[in-house]
Amino acid sequence: MGYPVGQVSAVAGVTVRTLHHYDRTGLLRPSDRSPAGYRLYSDADLARLQQILFYRELGFPLDEIATILADPQADALARLRARHRRLTEEIHRLQRLVEVAEQAMEVQQTGVRLTPQERFEVFGEIAFDLTYATEADHRWRESDGYRHSMARAATHTKDDWAQLMAEAAAWRARLTAAFDAGEPADGERAMDLAEEHRRHLTRWFTPCPTDMHGRIADDFAADPRAFALLVPPAEQRPGLAPYLRTAVHANAVRQSPPAPTAEPTTGPAAPRPEAAP
């Protein structure tokens, strides 16, 4: 009993049209026909189809597959080695293209226009997470502050980035020192560090009012990928991101102008009691 073409198509995951093409070219002829003339495939035919699909998946052209299957003496191992070599070369080529694409994406999503070597020299352990950069782009692309920040970042030279990162490293050292010393997050020292960071963002990227700074600090505390852009994992401490968030929000309160005091209201003068006779 043979297998009809529709059943073979469903089991093998190829179209009926493909099986008809294999029949016409002689690559895979069914061993039998039904009384009505329909193709019927034997177990041996299915085994041959499995070989065809194996070689096709590896990228062999159909004429080369036919040569391999037609000649039992054909050096299939040598052909497989050659194909392995070509596939390995293609993988390396595609990996290079992926790296180029990632670098292009990073430039677009971070604004950092430096070569990989310059990036390593400037940023050291600070690494951009493209998943976070992509999400940030989707979240804030309509924000004037985000667009201005990306535009400013794109104008920075290698020397600019080196100065920026040196300032950031010195600030990180003071932040961790305050944290390690047990300074309160809403104390003067921590709030001064928060204000210094806000002014750093304003100087290098975009005007950063306290409400914007608060949203940035919230993101640092909520997403480790964001905080890793500020403090490399090797320098982090448990609780440091929430500590900074508290300091930023406390500083925002400190920076807010005092609410105007209401003028005391004076009603009509109370009648003076008459002097007792």
From TrEMBL:
Residues 77-104 form a coiled coil. Keywords: Activator, Coiled coil, DNA-binding, Transcription, Transcription regulation. Residues 1-71 form the HTH merR-type domain. Residues 251-277 are annotated as: Disordered. The keyword Ion transport does not apply. SMART domains: HTH_MERR (SM00422). InterPro entries: DNA-bd_dom_put_sf (IPR009061), MerR-type_HTH_dom (IPR000551), MerR_fam (IPR047057), TipA-like_antibiotic-bd (IPR036244), TipAS_dom (IPR012925). SUPFAM superfamilies: Antibiotic binding domain of TipA-like multidrug resistance regulators, Putative DNA-binding domain. This is MerR family transcriptional regulator.
